[in-house]
């Protein structure tokens, strides 16, 4: 099920923007994205709302773009692949994750994609100014199922655990144990792991008994996963 953005969120969207989004979706399909729900959400989502106006002309390129504070809005293919990878195991069980945790809100783009596909999204951001901007976008888009927190992302959101699924949008050498502890026993975690020069997108799937199976999905490039509050 998709929770679409209200019509008011897309007010003023022109045909030029829609054509650019359609071209982006065609590119994502060419590069292997198959989940139609993910493609539909990203087709309808105005990515230019999540970046500085000076970069609006590049909003629908399949590339990462700067958002300030040394952070980026992820490449659309990466957002689509991570979302697809997170949902896929639940599809096999004829369900969907009810409660999802995102580490690294950034611009809010990945959060808004997920919030249209899951009932409850929790997102943590260490840089207060980025979180303030993301919250404004959540309100403008009329999304009421996102809860956000300004905190050290490496700590997760323990009082709301366990989570059916967890997604990290920054890369560390390993998944912090405090985050993994907040994943439900049969949950799914999707994250980039590795050094700045060599990172791999992985998916961890719980067996319900405390063990996790790890899969390597793709080579990626993310900003580093940092601790503390910025």
TrEMBL record:
Active-site residue list: 74
Principal localisation: cytoplasm
Keyword Nuclease (UniProt): no
EC number, UniProt record: 2.1.1.77
Enzyme type, top EC level: transferase
Pfam family membership, one: PCMT
Record keywords, A-Z: Cytoplasm, Methyltransferase, S-adenosyl-L-methionine, Transferase
Compartments where located: Cytoplasm
Catalytic activity: [protein]-L-isoaspartate + S-adenosyl-L-methionine = [protein]-L-isoaspartate alpha-methyl ester + S-adenosyl-L-homocysteine
Domain of life: Bacteria
Keyword hit for Transcription: no
NCBIfam families the record matches: pimt, PRK00312.1
Family the entry assigns: Belongs to the methyltransferase superfamily. L-isoaspartyl/D-aspartyl protein methyltransferase family.
PANTHER family: PROTEIN-L-ISOASPARTATE O-METHYLTRANSFERASE, PROTEIN-L-ISOASPARTATE(D-ASPARTATE) O-METHYLTRANSFERASE
Protein's job: Catalyzes the methyl esterification of L-isoaspartyl residues in peptides and proteins that result from spontaneous decomposition of normal L-aspartyl and L-asparaginyl residues. It plays a role in the repair and/or degradation of damaged proteins.
Identification of the protein by name: Protein-L-isoaspartate O-methyltransferase
């Amino acid at each position: 099920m998709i929770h679409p953005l209200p019509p008011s969120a897309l007010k003023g969207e022109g045909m030029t923007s829609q054509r650019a989004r359609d071209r982006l979706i065609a590119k994502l399909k060419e590069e292997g994205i198959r989940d139609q729900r993910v493609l539909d959400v990203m087709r309808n989502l105005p990515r230019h709302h999540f970046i500085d106006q000076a970069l609006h002309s590049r909003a629908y390129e399949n590339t990462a773009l700067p958002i300030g504070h040394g952070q980026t809005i992820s490449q659309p293919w990466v957002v689509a692949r991570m979302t697809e990878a997170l949902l896929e195991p639940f599809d096999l069980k004829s369900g969907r994750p009810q409660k999802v945790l995102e580490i690294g809100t950034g611009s809010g783009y990945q959060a808004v994609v997920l919030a249209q596909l899951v009932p409850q999204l929790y997102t943590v951001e260490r840089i207060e100014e980025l979180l303030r901007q993301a919250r404004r976008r959540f309100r403008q888009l009329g999304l009421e199922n996102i809860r956000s927190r300004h905190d050290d992302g490496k700590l997760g959101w323990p009082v709301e655990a366990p989570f059916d699924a967890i997604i990290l949008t920054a890369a560390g050498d390993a998944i912090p144990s405090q985050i993994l502890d907040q994943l439900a026993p049969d949950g799914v975690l999707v994250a980039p792991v590795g050094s700045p020069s060599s990172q791999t997108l992985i998916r961890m799937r719980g067996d319900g008994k405390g063990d996790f199976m790890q899969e390597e999905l793709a080579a990626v490039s993310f900003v580093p996963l940092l601790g503390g509050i910025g």
